[in-house]
Task: structure prediction
Amino acid sequence: MLAEGDDGPRGKLGPEPDSAGFERFVVDGDDTRRVHTILRDQRTVAGIGRGYSDDILHRARLSPYTSLGALPPEDRRALLDAVRDVLAEALEIERRRTGGLPTKIGDHFTVHGRYGTPCPRCGDDLRRISYESHEVTYCPACQTGGKVLADRRLSRLVR
Result:
């Protein structure tokens, strides 16, 4: 039991993804971190994580290396719409699940963990990169203007 006024671990969580606070952060924010980093940071926005970050950025057609502060207003709106749409769809899928929770949530990801398979939008191969000790799945054709992002794991081995 927590002491009165003690929020415990929840006190460190950021706003919910569908909140006005998160919308203000995206629309008006000048945060220079990469959007993929922001979406994974539970102190910035609660509950998204790596898998949904990949799918959200794919839906919004944004590079995982894009900085929030560099996004024009239309891309910020696309990001917000993608956050809401991807999470609403995921929640609907989870609500239809029967037989209890699987050992791993997220078997319904669109691109996360599906590198080497065709992009569901354009058909090009999905790629992965190692970034901040995580693997990120993305589509070069849809998200980076055809540019294949440098994989930090490989570049460290080649030196």
About this structure: The chain has a mean pLDDT of 88.
